[in-house]
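Hi V.,

You were right to ask for the full record rather than a summary. Here it is.
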Amino acid sequence: MDKRNIQHPADKYHNGEFPMQKQDAPGLQSRMDPVPDCGETSYTGHERLKGRRALITGGDSGIGRAVAVAFAREGAEVAINYLDEEQPDADSLAGLLKAEGSELTMLPGDLRDVETCRRIVKEAYKRLGGLDILVLNAGVQQAAADIAEITPERVRRTFEVNVYAPLFMAQAAVPLLPPGASVIITASAEYYTPNKLLLDYAASKSAVTAFGVALSKYLLDKGVRVNSVCPGPTWTPLEVSGGNPDEDIPRHGADTPLERAAQPAEMAGIYVFLASSEASYITGEIYGITGGLSGK
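Predicted structure:
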């Protein structure tokens, strides 16, 4: 056995304290210390998605970026959606993939607007020449130590991005997705173990998880599979731009059984699998990648 390819999972990535840091939302991964590992130097593709066409929301950084890197290296044509403020991260991803021979289709837009949701899906379909993988990954998260801090405007924004956008993007995509297509929703470990500081976020992620199961049933006759991935604490811009209390940043992820946060690169493999024909008998499922939290 080549021991270079196997090691204790607690030691595979950064497992010490993170430096104190804070950004305004939505945050840029290029400004984080350490910069999240999205598989840029480690993910190797094997043509498992050759000829496929994928749209990934929130694809500029974090989990979405790791999925975009993996999909492109597996042979898929990839489009990403992101906010205008996230353009630097999106540009760096486009540059990385272009150097490898892949053209990234870039579709900025704020998914709080229903018409933007519909436009992004239609543009992806047109520019990619079809659409058979839809990754509904974009999300917002803000921690609140006091329930009084949670305003109607904040709840509305959380649900517009985390619940409404996946629903309306799926609605726009349904007529375009062929049999064999795959929809993958990024939910959260908040579905398993909701945090008292994330009341509105936990509610939204529980809602979108249920939506994914319901959508899988709705699309069964069409031959489109729908599954959800529930990441645990992961080192992304979401955490340093209000998703975690400032004082909790250094020990982000330390309360998991593996005692560290995940890196986005550790999420990519399950998305590749669920998008591929290898997962042809899998629909309506919920996959926890939580460092052991879902089994606590």
